[in-house]
Design a protein that fits this description.
homodimer, alpha+beta, OB fold (Dihydrolipoamide Acetyltransferase, E2P), BirA Bifunctional Protein, domain 2, 3 domains, 8-stranded mixed β-sheet, nucleic acid binding (chains A, B), ATP-binding (chains A, B), aminoacyl-trna synthetase (chains A, B), nucleotide-binding (chains A, B), catalytic activity, acting on a protein (chains A, B)
């Protein structure tokens, strides 16, 4: 019976075992041959000794890296001087009686354990890159996470229901991937950006508790943490409210963290309104593992004779500052110039700064602060010698974007982020709409099916920007892990919502008429949430490359370098689909 | 705390409970109002009595079918004369204290419990059709089946790994669904027909045990039991052989049948070679729940003076017969004519027949049988009075197709199929190739990665039609439930295989070069299987309509009647994808 390497322990010393795997390395030493045998579960040293088996040694002489072999031999304790503390099996080795080559290997384009191989070469030979224990362990973690979520939801009476991949294109949201229909000439399916409408229809059908771990698709320009296809943990529930949904998700995350990381999280998770998050952290997904909060100095700014600050406030903007405690001496003029360059990428016109030395403010703008101003600032910001203060004065949007991102950058640069800490946080009370300057209309901040707070419904027509939503995001260490909401389940409210989004009645009926009709036949109150599984795995695995958590990822240009996809297809195929390629010269 | 209706039992008599659900029916009787309240788990009767709560009764008066309500009331035992044996809660009812209308409903286009609604109307209002307990129970069974499979494979150390949906088009196999690329002009992804190549690459990467429950896609003309997207239970394993694979799958099915149906199956499952299946049952997926086997009379046919039989054999064909025991008097001339019409759809030129009466053969062809022939036939077929014998004389292909299908039809017509019996069967030793007359070349009977039996490898060049494969199908009650094989893991054998399939070296390298290259870096022996999940659910649920097992199925023309998909898209969308619609006038 074949064993995994990790099953071989000192307890088996003296016993004969049978192993299969890949040869990671061969070393010849003093008439003996040593190979490191790798399987899915680890690594073990196998020794070939002519006094034990001449024929095994003979075979071993032909063995090269990445050969697949089957080995039988006796488990021996190593001499303590030969212990290898880097591997769990480092105190033992296998004295080979027999070895069989199951498959030969030519010299691979890179050594499996080589971490320096370029990403493109790794992707082209993905099956070799995936031999790295690091990547295999991430895929195992992903499986554990999946399994933990499923176990939890199964036990809570949720039903895993599949929804279509060949779906319908809708104009709200990101760009769709399209699939031409052969049967319906000139028509197209779309790959779903989420199963949102289907899961709501399942609630209308009375399934009550639905979940799915499901591929979704967005044809957007790729970023480091994006892939054209991504996986969602998708959950929906009837007869629920926001409190119940948050509690359910906290129970789920508690189980996941226990199963996958062996960590006990504390519930309930902290909560923060969207307004508070933006105001204190400058971003809608605060990383609460470190402090460095934003301080609002807008009122203070009006008391000092510094035009940059005053005019920002007078023009409807604000002044906010971050205090970097005790670090002033570590920031040279040049360092601060670099930080200014950084905030400029978020639209700030500049980064004002002060240092606190010998109980006084220092720096180019210190001269604008009179004695009273200085005293006020010391009190407001609880300043101490050694502090560095970084200010941005601008519109609310620019102040928050620049300082919010600067805050995260400073924490990384100053190494303020504790390792192995998982700070979950709910961000609630989101605005229902976002105004898009270019399009000149409101868009749904989450999606058009999110319900407004009951007390804000009357503002839908007149002051949509003031309407808050029954929406909640779960944030982990500064990343949006998932988002959800209590949905609209009333046809007339859904119609109002589309009106606020600028849909004509015709557009609404054409695109979402069936859904509004569906709401008219007995729709239960319902809500749900969707998690980005890939990102969840990234955060738990501690990697910042999304390709590490996907077995066969695409490149930044959405290509598969191994299979060479996408690729050209035959004229016959296009003809059957009633389409032509139309490339602009 | 809200309860499901199924949680309300006589044990709760006298207690106050809280329920939520849909109103299936309202009846007014003697000043009282009765409603049947339906939730995901069942049905219960709620009574409104003016002496208990006038305001609840008042609200109840406004309630209509499919309203969503929240009810609080006391559990009462019914008077035995009022027991409803049709529902588990039939001995009790809820005396309502309060009722709240959560959602109104206008009169639906059909009553939820109406089984006669046309399929098109049901699909258009799928969310109403899905309120039927029958369909909800099937989706629950599907979930249970999924869960059972996952639990089994998780415990056997298999890892659930996702593979890409945006994949590459390959010319072998069925027609692909294509997805135009925006970034790579004029190029297309294909939706996968199966994750076959990916899972083999995962074996090459050393993941050892993989599974996935995964959507696959085929753009084929639809049949009753086909959908454009379908779900596979996909399994692959390294360092395995056929015996191990069959045993693994028998353990899995044992657990599934126990978990889902509460049935203990007997293992090992019966096995039959492909040759035996075709010879005795005429089909490659025999239904072994009944007898009616095919009897080969080719040798006998040469002994009688009946040209139809003799010439079939002389032309390289055969004569086979089915004996329908004791049923001759139930088959009129007209009945047999109908059977003849049936076999003609499978290419038979006619259906010869004999009846056994008073120890003699009767019927139009009886005259061709002399005394010796009669005696021989009686002995060969163990004939008894009352038997009906049905013969087809033709090519092997036609004889098997017509009698194999006739056999299944007779079993259905004569009600020979026992209910609630699940006959699992392995069909092994498949031919590696199928010859396609139209294309004038061999195709892979399963797929090009299936390994030939070791002893047949040398016939690959000269006599491919004689090569048997290490392939196995799992058959349940006459349906192919799944199929798998031990794969090729040797680059040169894989190259031979493509040669036998008529690929030029260039075609092979262009389409599968990366895979053959992959085999050169240490490929473990491996094999796997894939189950059609939708069909598995159909068979366990006892439905013959595949749409019953899918939440949102497509029509026979691959359309979604509810969402109206596929649909036209904007010119802007097409432009971004570098394609034009090209409809022939």
């Amino acid at each position: 019976m074949r064993k995994y390497t990790r099953e071989i322990t000192e307890a088996l010393t003296g016993e004969t075992v049978h192993l299969k795997g890949w040869v990671q390395k061969r070393r010849d030493l003093g008439g003996l041959i040593f190979i490191d045998l790798r399987d899915r579960e680890g690594l073990i040293q196998v020794v070939f000794n002519p006094e034990v088996s001449g024929s095994a040694l003979e075979t071993a002489e032909r063995i090269r890296s990445e050969f697949v072999v089957s080995v039988t031999g006796k488990v021996l304790e190593r001499d303590p001087s030969q212990y290898n503390d880097n591997i769990p099996t480092g105190k033992i080795e296998i004295m080979a009686d027999t070895v069989e080559v199951l498959s030969k290997a030519k010299t691979p384009p890179f050594q499996v354990m080589d971490e320096t191989v370029s990403e493109d070469v790794g992707l082209k030979y993905r099956y070799l890159d995936l031999r790295k224990p690091k990547l295999q362990n991430i895929l195992k973690l992903r499986h554990q996470l999946n399994r933990s979520v499923r176990n939890f939801l199964d036990n809570e009476d949720f039903i895993d229901i599949e929804t279509p991949v060949l779906s319908k294109s809708t104009p709200e949201g990101a760009r769709d991937y399209l699939v031409p229909s052969r049967v319906h000439e000139g028509e197209f399916y779309a790959l779903p950006q989420s199963p949102q409408i289907y899961k709501q229809l399942l609630m209308l059908s009375g399934m009550e508790k639905y979940y799915q771990i499901v591929k979704c698709f967005r044809d957007e320009d790729l970023r480091a943490d994006r892939q054209p296809e991504f996986t969602q943990i998708d959950i929906e529930m009837s007869f629920t409210d926001e409190e119940q949904m948050l509690a359910l998700n906290e129970r789920m995350i508690t189980q996941v963290m226990r199963d996958v990381k062996g960590i006990e999280v504390t519930t309930p998770f902290p909560r923060m309104t969207y307004h508070q998050a933006m105001s204190e952290y400058g971003v809608d997904k605060p990383d609460t593992r470190f402090d460095l909060k934003l301080n609002d100095l807008s009122a203070f700014a009006e008391t000092i004779d510094f035009k940059v600050f005053r005019s920002a406030v007078e023009n409807g903007g604000m002044v906010k500052a971050i205090v970097v405690k005790g670090e002033e001496s570590n920031f040279s003029r040049k360092d601060i110039d670099k930080l200014e360059g950084y905030v400029k990428t978020y639209g700030a016109k500049g980064l004002a700064w002060l240092k606190v030395k010998e109980d006084a403010l220092n720096g180019p703008i210190a001269k604008f602060f009179n004695e009273q101003n200085q005293a006020d600032l010391f009190e407001t910001l609880s300043l101490e010698n050694g502090d560095l203060i970084l200010f941005v004065a601008d519109s609310e949007k620019v102040v928050h974007a620049s300082l919010g991102n600067l805050r995260n950058k400073l924490a990384r640069d100053l190494d303020l982020i504790p390792e192995n800490q998982f700070n979950f946080l709910w961000v609630t009370d989101w605005p229902l709409f976002e105004y898009d300057e270019d399009a000149g209309r409101y868009f749904a901040a989450h999606h058009p099916f999110t319900s407004p707070k009951a007390e804000d419904v009357e503002k839908l027509d007149e002051a949509p920007e003031q309407v808050l939503a029954n929406a909640y995001d779960i944030v982990l260490n500064g990343y949006e892990l998932g988002g959800g909401s209590i949905r609209i389940h009333d046809a007339s409210l859904q119609e109002k919502m589309f009106k606020a989004l600028g849909f004509t009645d015709e557009e609404r009926d054409e695109q979402f008429g069936f859904l509004i009709e569906a709401f008219k036949y007995g729709a239960p109150p319902h809500g749900g949430i969707a998690y980005g599984l890939d990102r969840f795995v990234m955060l738990l695995a501690g990697t910042d490359n999304i390709r590490d958590v996907i077995a066969f990822p695409k490149t930044a240009s959405a290509g598969d370098l191994m299979m060479n996809a996408p690729s050209e297809v035959s004229k016959q195929q296009l003809k059957e689909l009633h389409i032509d390629v139309d490339i602009e010269e």
